[in-house]
């Protein structure tokens, strides 16, 4: 050993094995699913990530656009949020946590609101947000009606034109060279 130099690390095999074992038993950070991550440009346009916890404790994610507190999922279901359910994953990604058995997203780190009845019992407050879900349902029904009416308009217009052609041909045969 040279005078003045000291070794900082003790490189024996036993300590390296202990380090590997401690890494295996350590707690790993949960990563957000890739499909639920929103880029900066998507966030500016109003997109958020939605995390689902399914029956088999499987987490999946997707990106959806918020439109006035409502968002449509890939399976066609529409949900409503008042904005208090939006959380930030690592301060970067806006996330909504949606359980499979609930209509509304779940608020995280919030105690359930309880009201006291006249007899002194505590009851949970209903999770309905008011008129907005009703407006959402009406909006969804209007969109369906417009889609049906578009095809019907073409058929009705075709029937009117064909009927008019035959009526003109019957009453004015010389008009079309007949």
Topology:
Blueprint: H1 13-25, H2 40-45, E1 47-53, E2 59-65, E3 70-72, E4 78-80, E5 87-89, E6 93-99, E7 114-116, E8 122-124, H3 131-171
Parallel strand pairs: 1-6
Antiparallel strand pairs: 1-2, 3-4, 5-6, 7-8
Could you characterize what this model shows?
With 178 residues, this protein is of the alpha+beta class. The chain has two domains: 34-116, no CATH class; 131-178. It is built from three helices and eight strands. The protein has a four-stranded mixed beta sheet. Strands 3-4 form a two-stranded antiparallel sheet. Strands 7-8 form a two-stranded antiparallel sheet. Strand 1 (47-53) and strand 2 (59-65) form a beta hairpin. The chain starts with 12 loop residues before the first helix and ends in a 7-residue tail after the last helix. Mean pLDDT is 76; it is low at 1-7.
The geometry reads as elongated
Percentage of β-strand residues:
15-25%
The number of distinct β-strands equals: 8
Q: Could you give the order of strands across the largest sheet?
A: 2-1-6-5
Poorly predicted runs: 1-7
How far apart the termini lie comes to 120 Å
The averaged pLDDT comes out at 76
- In percent, how helical is the residue content? 25-40%
Element pattern in H and E: HHEEEEEEEEH
Number of domains: 2
Number of helix segments?
A: 3
Classification by helices and strands: alpha+beta
Task: State the main characteristics.
3 helices, disordered N terminus, 8 strands, 178 residues, 2 domains, four-stranded mixed beta sheet, 20% strand, alpha+beta
Provide a concise account of the structure shown.
By secondary structure, the protein is an alpha+beta fold. The protein folds into two domains: 83 residues, no CATH class; 48 residues. It is built from three helices and eight strands; from the N terminus they run ααββββββββα.
């Amino acid at each position: 050993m040279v005078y003045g130099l000291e070794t900082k690390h003790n490189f024996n095999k036993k300590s390296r094995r202990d380090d590997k074992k401690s890494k295996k038993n350590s707690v790993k950070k949960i990563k957000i699913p890739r499909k639920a991550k929103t880029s900066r440009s998507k966030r500016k346009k109003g997109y958020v990530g939605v995390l689902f916890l399914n029956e088999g404790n499987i987490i999946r994610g997707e990106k959806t656009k918020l439109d006035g507190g409502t968002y449509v999922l890939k399976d066609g279901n529409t949900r409503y949020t008042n904005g208090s359910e939006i959380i930030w994953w690592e301060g970067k990604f806006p996330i909504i946590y949606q359980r499979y058995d609930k209509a509304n997203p779940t608020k995280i780190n919030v105690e359930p609101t309880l009201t006291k009845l006249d007899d002194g019992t505590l009851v949970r407050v209903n999770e309905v947000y008011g008129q907005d879900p009703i407006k959402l349902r009406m909006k969804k029904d209007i969109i369906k009606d417009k889609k049906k009416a578009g095809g019907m308009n073409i058929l009705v217009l075709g029937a009117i034109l064909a009927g008019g052609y035959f009526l003109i041909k019957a009453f004015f045969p010389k008009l079309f060279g007949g």
